[in-house]
Amino acid sequence: MTDATPLARPRLVLPAWALFALGVLSCGVAIWSEGSISGQDEYWLSFRTPMEMRARGEYWTPWLDGEPRLQKPPLLYWLLCLSYELLGTNLFAARIWSACFGAGLALIAARLHRELWQRDGTLAGLLVLAAAGVGIESRRAMLDLPMGCLAALAVLFGLRWQRSGRLAPLLGASTALAAAVLIKGPVALLFAATATLAWWITLRRAPRPADANRSAAGLPQLALAALVFLALALPWPISMWLSWPQLGDVLVEQSEARQFTWLRVSAIGPVLGGGLALIAPWSLVVLHAAVRAQGLASDDERRARRWLLLWVVASAVPFLCFAAFERYLIPMVVPMAVLAARFLESCDERVRRVHLTLAVAVLGLPTLGFAAFALVFDLAILTPLAALALLAWTLRSAWRHAEPRRVALACAASITLLLGGVYPAIGINALPDDLPTDLREKDVATYQIAQPGMLSMRAGKSVFTLPEGIDLKARLAGFDGYVFVLEDRRERFLRACEAAAIEVQALRSFRSLFSRKAWLRFVREGSTWADWRAALAARSLDALSPEFTIYRVRHG
Question: What is the rounded CA–CA span in Å between residue 362 and residue 291?
Answer without folding.
Answer: 21
